[in-house]
């Protein structure tokens, strides 16, 4: 299996609390090129490409895994785990 950082073309810049930028369907991390740098002075900025987009490892595509959004959610979780980032929800608790 390919290393997660390579698989998802993970780019890390800045320093401070982590801020992960995840792109939407039909684009790649390049969509954040004008936004993400503005946070580098105060945050560790993480940009990545989902498998099947941008410079992510296309050979890692598995139709069973990526046949639902859960596979893409696993990508986010695995990127965070590889970087030692613990997820915190910014929208509060219910």
Kindly describe this structure.
- The chain is α+β, with helices and mostly antiparallel strands and 94 residues long.
- It has one domain.
- Helix content is 20%, strand content 13%.
- It has a 3-stranded mixed sheet with strand order 1-3-2, with no helix packed on it.
- The chain is globular.
- The model has no long low-confidence stretch (mean pLDDT 92).
SSE diagram, text form:
Layout: H1 4-7, E1 11-14, E2 18-21, E3 44-47, H2 69-83
Parallel strand pairs: 2-3
Antiparallel strand pairs: 1-3
Report how far the terminal alpha carbons are from each other. 37 Å
Shape descriptor: globular
Strand content: 5-15%
Q: Which range best describes the helical content: under 10%, 10-25%, 25-40%, 40-55%, 55-70% or over 70%?
A: 10-25%
Strand order of the largest sheet: 1-3-2
Uncertain parts: none
Report on the biggest sheet. Answer: 3 strands, mixed
Gyration radius (Cα, Å) is 13 Å
Number of helices in the DSSP assignment: 2
Count of folded domains: 1
**Overall mean pLDDT score?**
92
Number of strands: 3
Structural class: alpha+beta
Order of helices and strands: HEEEH
